[in-house]
Design brief:
single chain, Muramoyl-pentapeptide Carboxypeptidase, domain 2, five-stranded mixed beta sheet, alpha+beta, about 290 residues
Length: about 290
Amino acid sequence: MSVQQFWGNRFAKPVAAGFGKAGFRKSLRNYHCSNPPTSFSKPPQVCFTFNPIHMRYLPILFCFFLLQCNPKKEKADVAKLPETVAGADGQQGTEEAPAPAVDAAPEIKKIDFDTSVWEEVVRLAPSIRLDLRYATDNNFVKTKMYDCPRCFLRPDVARAVIAAHKILQKKGLGLKMYDCYRPRPIQWKLWKKVPDPRYVADPRKGSMHNRGMAVDLTIVDSLGKELDMGTDFDFFGREAYHSYAGHSDEVTDNRVLLLETMEEQGFRPTSTEWWHYSYKPKKYELADWLWPCK
């Protein structure tokens, strides 16, 4: 008799007996034995005790097993894994996915002056360049006069300067400021350095700078390079005069462009300084106000 026939006969007995409980229990007990029979004349050693009443719990256990193997949970766990990238040496490493970029909030600058009396030029036109020489020692008195470089003018004067700047921008050019409003206390400091009315206005009389009505400026190209005006700012000599005829055509053209642009916005030149322009339409009082430094 073969092993298959042996086990077939063992299961056939309870079937023939109408699947009695005792026969079915005995057959399952022999089937689950871990030591298969070595002889067909003796039943195998019993190593597993099985109660058929437990069969009713199998569907419940099967459903519990399926819940523990939920594929959705595995996908969620995989989504949390860091991305794998190749390092510089070719080995695999891990790197967290970058967070989405957040646009930085625009900087809001506090207005620290009376806008009905003064205006800061670069607040309205940031593209206007500043090279405020009296906030450095790069000036004719070789001394720093301003605590910090800020360009203030009377509101109407500031708007006129910005209008001139916009005209030049259409040509790929722009303005650079050398000096703007100059407080009268600073004028006194200059006067003590150079008490000569040919170069520095007497602070008792005051100047157009002390009223916030005058500007010292030049023209720059789109890269900020100054156009050739023949001399530097605050050059005291005939070469700085508007009437000087010894300059090249390029220098003359550049000076004429600055002159015409500023005159169109209500400014008048000073004959001995190509960089200096005063506002004509209005007149303002002398001022001692010192701007705050941030």
